[in-house]
Amino acid sequence: MELLIKNGAVVDPVNGNKGDKTDISIKDGKIVKTVSSKATIIDAGGRLVMAGGVDAHSHIAGAKVNVGRMMRPEDSRSGISPRTKITRPCTGYTVPNVYAMGYRYAQMGYTTVFEAAQAIMKARHTHEELEEIPIIDKGALTLFGSNWPTMDFVREKDMDKLAAYVSWGLLASRGFGVKCVNPGGGEMWGFGKNVTGIDDVVPGFDVTPKEIIVSLMKVNEMLGLPHSVHLHCNNLGNPGNYKTTLASMELANQVKASKKRQVMHVTHLLFNSWGGTNWGDFESKADEVANFLNNHKNVTGDMGQMIFGSATTMTADGPKQYANAKLLHAKWSNGDVELEDASGVVPIYYVKQISVHAIMWAIGLELALLTKDPYQMLLTTDHPNGGPFVNYSEVIALLMSNKKRQEEIKTVHEAVHAKNKLPGLDRELDFSEIAIMTRAGTAKVLGLLDTKGHLGVGADADISIYDIKPDQIDPTVEHAKIKSAFSSAAYTIKGGNVVVKDGQITATPLGRTYWVDAKVPQQHHDEMMKDIVKKFKNYYSMQLANYMVQDEYLTHQQVVKAGIIPAEVN
Amino acid sequence: MTVITDALCPFCGCLCDDLTIVVENNKITDIKNACKLGSAKIMGHHRIEAPMMRADKKSEFKEVSYDEAINEAASILFKSKRPLMYGWASAVCEVHKKGILLAEEVGAIIDNTATVCHAPSTLAVHEKGLPTATLGQVKNRSDVVVFWGSNPVHAHPRHMGRYSVFAKGFFQEKGRKGRKVIVVDVRKTETASMADEFVQVQQGSDYLVISALRAILSGHADVVPESVGGVTKEQLSKLVDTLKAAKFGAVFFGMGLTQSISRYKNIDNAISLITELNAYTKYVITPMRGHYNVTGFGQVCSWETGFATAVDFARGAPYYNPGETAANDVLMRKETDAAMIIAGDAGAHFPADSVRHLARIPVVQIDPYWNPTTEVSNVVIPVAICGVEVEGTAYRMDGVSMRMRKMIEPTLPTDVEILEKITQRVRELRGE
User: How far apart are CA A49 and CA A23, in angstroms?
Assistant: First the structure.
């Protein structure tokens, strides 16, 4: 099938396009040079055209998302819509059902989303949900930061075995990359304890978070994985944690990237850029973190922007979630996974007049405005931790308009004036910078820039058209229009199919699931498996034969080859 | 002869995955590692051999073709103004997905066997969340294990060996000797006989006993009377000391807690106790789920509809309000005018008034086995047995999913095939 998008104001930073009228030709799901005269024509009429949105960090599928649904029927009761001839029914705001996940991302013009954390043992569940999320391409990052084999091989300083374990773990979980959450802390939470920084020793394993982070970065680069290590820092959510964050980011200098991308992605930095020593003297240190990024090109981050209102915090950071539940007197779910990691789910309501919440809200925006290179600071809300992804348009509008920010600042707790730099920041992002934070940058950070995040020939035909004419709008003033347009795409095209028109779902093809098949030398694999077999014989509660995710759970898989042995070409 | 290793057991929520199955000529001839309950199910019994129908419930069943039975089932659902689709626990998740789609299309209420089992636990999770862990955490770490209102010796025979009491693990090398086992129940069960401590509560007093424990734990022993629910204050205080002294404690609860007086409030209170114990040391709590994939239905229903069970699609969008939309609610109110019972036995387990109403309305049964539900059915469609003849996904009681093996070739259609055909036929009746 051929498609031609005419008269679009194309914003495509990768290919140097800043809003020029450019036609885009599509054939068989890809962007091509030209199409025949039979091509269906979409007249963009001077409206904004971007590559389909790419989200590198969002909790869209798996055990903890479903725990969120089960413990929050009050959330499922919001956002209800009945089935239609094309769509299944939708429920939920912070923890939408699988159908709403796909439809709502597509309605915003997003076409690729990565689930931020799955334990290998529960990966089958993640894939069961991913299989039912319509339209978008997706994948999931796999947790390695507190896994017993990881810590054993780190202690033994056996990087060959660790690389073999990561390779096998990605296969077992059909995972896309290495996620590392509160390294070491997940194990310690098994006995209700936690690490306090990157130099603590994990009892029973005799390794430090620092050693885990550096080792995982090393093997990530040995394996040449598309994405870098994806780090959720120790001490997340504690006042004064920016020091831990800076010390963790500093570790990136110990490893050289195997690809043209960062060696470390530090996620939801909003929750890791905190100064002060308690909730009373709590303050923003976003400037310190952004300053680090401005001087270190080998590290990237994402915002984890907070949205006022209801959110559901969910993370493999089990101890943090227990602390949150105690602090908030909120209901608390915990979900430790044997030999692998912890997790917790706690609902929260972010309130403008609570000083800590107001300061947090401002931190996220500061991170985006103080980090000079938008390729280093991706737009996320750490859905649904900072807030639901459906609010991305709000974040875009805030970043593009100082006027909107000043209006908002008037409505939040006055602490932001003393504890944040936000009130004095006048930077206003342009469409290209927004396109980087939501498309080109996310695709680059994930290592998918060959086919995602841009509109050059050879890219996937994932395209969004928004109802704004860039040459006729001043986003700094008309922020309401910006918000409205980015919340509901005029067109979303996924793999060459029109899936959204005028904000309404028009088709629901099933997207693909990305995972990485990283090869290691057979002898490394065999050596590593001896340890794994012992772990299953003695410690796991299930059989090795039933552990790995089967092909049945990936009906539309997209395998990315990597590994120490060069990928075979067939 | 074929030998299948590491096969999964389609009986209880333990979902043991270390069975060895010997198959000769498409017949299972030997089973290793399974408990009596699992073996009995896998070896098979009392299968319904062919589809059956009858015009009214007093007449005898007549064998019919699958097409006839499917057409009639579709017609019943199509004509119904308030259909109920109930059961699901003894089927794999792939069946649940087809069932929820059909429920959407006919505007049915879909509910599962948890409604007479652990649905009160779900209500408590709505209130308090669920601090839990996979069973391997208990195996590797626990030094205090509590069974409250549950009797694994009878209901989950391999639980104690594989996961909780006798299992040896990384931080718990001694197994049984390294653990204090406490049983709280209204009678001295066989599990209680094996425990280090048995706490006998008066029937219906669990809530009081949990409250007393919480009071003592929070330093308010002074408000606790000398005896609570038949348990002395002295024993309660000792129990709190034991619980607090654990490095890793695990509480497993069963229907003694969910289906006795106070129902979901018992669980709500127990979860609060666990949350509070976490201020001192590590504690987790896990429901002892019955059927091997009752947990799976709750998972699938949650990610597809946003709600774990008792979902009403009458409005086209999911609506959940247990007390109003659970199976027994609509049966007791005589609101349901047709029912499909699949992979669960309402006839055996529902209150008499609900079964009486089932006897009055058209009922379609989809099940491998003849059971009390058959007696109130009009259309009976036998199917292959999930987990023995059909592969697919199941969720263990701790939420870990695994893929059930196909041990032998089915001789009858699968639940998925039947549900797809009924859905297709309903669409035809609608003129779609």
Answer: 10
Q: Do A326 and B140 touch (CB under 8 A)?
A: no
Q: Which residue do the tokens 């694999």 mark?
A: A525
Which pLDDT tens digit goes with each residue over B113-171?
999 999 999 999 999 999 999 999 999 999 999 999 999 999 999 999 999 999 999 99
Nearest to B302 among A70, A335, A545 (CB): A70
ipTM above 0.90, yes or no: yes
**A 503-522 residues inside an 8 A Cβ radius of B:** none
- Fold classified for B46-116+292-429: Rossmann fold (3.40.50)
- Least CB–CB distance from B104: residue in A89, A91, A538: A89
d(CA A69, CA A63): 10
Check whether B4 has a pLDDT greater than 50.
yes
Residue from A490, A526, A318 nearest B134 by CA: A318
Q: Which two tokens stand for residue A390?
A: 């459906």
State which amino acid sits at residue A262. Q
Backbone torsions φ then ψ of B19, nearest 5 degrees: -80, 145
pLDDT of residue A467: 98
Mean pLDDT estimate for chain B: 97
The alpha-carbon gap from B127 to the nearest alpha carbon of chain A, in Å, equals: 7
- Domains of chain A from N-terminus onward: 2-51+451-505 (2.30.40.10)
Please state which CATH class domain B119-287 belongs to.
Answer: alpha beta
DSSP A227-274: S-EEEE-TTTTSTTTHHHHHHHHHGGGGS--SSSS-SEEE--GGGG-E
Q: Are A393 and A277 in contact (CB under 8 A)?
A: no
Do B399 and A125 make contact, defined as CB atoms within 8 angstroms? yes
The first and second tokens of residue A317, run together, are 């950071």
A89 neighbourhood in chain B, CB within 8 Å: 104, 305, 313, 316-318
To the nearest whole Å, the CA of B264 is away from the closest chain A CA by: 14
Question: Contact B393/A124, CB-based, under 8 Å?
Answer: yes
